Amino acid sequence: MPHTVLITDPVDPVCTDMLENKGFEVDLLLEYDEETLREHVSSANGWIVRSGTTVTAELIELADNLEVIGRAGVGVDNIDLDAATRKGVLVCNAPDGNTISTAEHTTAMMQALARTIPQANRSLLSGKWERKKFSGSELHSKTLGIVGVGKVGRAVAERMQGFGMKLLGFDPLVSEEVAARHDIELVDLDTLIENSDFITIHTPMNEETRGLLGTEAFERCKDGVRVVNCARGGIVDEMALLDALKAGKVAGAALDVYSKEPPPEELTELIQHPNVVATPHIAATTGAAQEKVAQQITEQVINGLMGEPVMTPVNGMAIRMAAQPEVQTYLELADRLGQIAYQLMEGNAQSLTVKCRGEVPRRYAEVLSVAALRGVLNQWADEPVNFINAPVLAEDMGLRFSETREAEHGSYTNLIEVEVKAGDETHVVAGTIFHGTDLRIVRIDTYELEAKPEGEMILYRNVDRPGMLATVGDLLAKANVNIGALALGRKARGEMALTAVSVDDEVPAAVLEEIASLDGVEDVRSVKIR
Ligand SMILES: NC(=O)C1=CN([C@@H]2O[C@H](COP(=O)(O)OP(=O)(O)OC[C@H]3O[C@@H](n4cnc5c(N)ncnc54)[C@H](O)[C@@H]3O)[C@@H](O)[C@H]2O)C=CC1
Ligand SMILES: O=C(O)C(=O)COP(=O)(O)O
């Protein structure tokens, strides 16, 4: 059956063309009530949205076939990321296709504010000729404060430099050197607020940025400051802005975004304030930007649904690495080692460490730890576990995980070790890949042995003395269980050895008990590798 991709916001037709060319079914649903949306979501494998759709936890919960949500743009604050991550749904965006259009809209807003263009236009259209009333302000030599020196912030900086503005920037994640490359002087937020003639916002919306410019900030601003928000509504506190406009502290504000969209009744006074220039979230609405974001996001959604690398994940960063072809065999090995290690435990694991040795590249360490986690959690959790939800489910279950990488590798050119612990109990299962594809377990706890990590196995420790294997073999034969392979991890005659028996059929619990009751046998485990 072909995959279905649901589209619930207007996106450039290139999106539909690309999906159909790849054999996907497109479900274009631009007008809907909640019930209709629920029905369509429940059968979608992929879902493409812009800012107009709110992707709630409830919808994600219903979407049992959903694998990927693609945001044809930057901001993902309309998507319940936590719910998507827990359900193992990949969320990706198109982070730079609309940067230029958004920066251009921001600069247009700044000029509209400085020269009161919309107000003057309205006045003229109403039959007036008010040349004195619309005396503007020059941008040249003024200070522009850029809050959020990311892609759009930098693109705005480049453009406003051409107007001869002095640029200040505030962004906790950007270095002075990077800012200086864009002729932005990096300062703290207070300095920016106190020294800017214009302030423009370009951060994401999150708990840290909500209300970033509020009553207190406006009090510290220069008299007559002008404020532009083309990022997200609510980063500038709308009611505080209205008060500051009414008090004349803020000379003008240009808004493309609102805390609720479309803006509700209570924002009418702000939007209709004579010194406000307001647009209906159109900064990214140009033919060029829409074509770019549609193309970018469709590529990512197709890749996500086809198991190819997704380059712009917003959650589950491991997915980017997990889809690389050269890492697949290592992932399989780490997953199987995780499965085995978990099944050796008496109780539930509390920590998991993956050690990569030899020629296993350093960049794989993190994704291999997620693969081993997936192996562990797929036995433990009630829900399906994948690369997206494994870390968050581990956290929920109190399982700490980490990874290390060591160049030293002993006898093997590549080696992955998975260690699980709970209290005093520790198990280590190590494996290697021979000839690029051949997976082998090479150590279990302190026993060196060589076994294929596949199918059903029974593992037990026994005194290393004649007759032990024959007795176990006899019990299995009587239960009509066929032995496929055997591996012995020996220390010295008379000491405890580890025996790994690969069997073609599941070993009945009663037979396992019989083996466990044999003299000289302990720690019998049945291990199933999927
Ligand atoms: N109005 C519209 O149609 C559009 C709006 N946007 C919005 O514009 C904003 C910026 O987009 P991009 O530049 O593409 O994103 P970006 O991710 O490239 O840049 C965001 C910057 O904000 C910084 N930042 C994060 N928290 C901060 C804080 N507390 N204080 C100061 N800086 C902080 C980050 O370090 C980053 O450098 C986003 O909110 C995005 O959703 C983007 C495109 C179109
Ligand atoms: O990319 C973003 O963050 C935007 O806000 C653009 O939103 P839109 O795709 O125009 O609904």
Number of strands: 22
Percentage of residues in helical conformation: 25-40%
| The CATH C-level class name of the largest domain | Alpha Beta
Largest sheet: 7 strands, parallel
Q: How big is the Rg?
A: 31 Å
> CATH H-level name of the largest domain... which superfamily?
NAD(P)-binding Rossmann-like Domain
Question: In what range is the share of β-strand residues?
Answer: 15-25%
pLDDT under 50 segments (min length 5)? none
Counted up, domains total: 4
The CATH architecture of the largest domain can be named as 3-Layer(aba) Sandwich
User: What structural class is derived from the secondary structure elements?
Assistant: alpha/beta
Domain ACT: 457-530
EC number: 1.1.1.95
GO molecular function: NAD binding; phosphoglycerate dehydrogenase activity
Function: Catalyzes the reversible oxidation of 3-phospho-D-glycerate to 3-phosphonooxypyruvate, the first step of the phosphorylated L-serine biosynthesis pathway. Also catalyzes the reversible oxidation of 2-hydroxyglutarate to 2-oxoglutarate.
